[in-house]
Amino acid sequence: MKKSKMLILFLLCFTVSIGFSQEKTRRQIKAEQKIQKQKEVEKLIDSREFQFVARNSNSQSFRMIDLTLNPNFVKFKPDFIKSDMPFFGRGYSGLGYTSDTGLKFEGKPEKYNTKLSNKEYQIKVSVKGQNDFFDLTLLVSFDGSGILTINSNNRAPITYFGEIMPIKEDKKE
Question: So which residues are the signal peptide here (predicted)?
Answer without folding.
Answer: 1-21
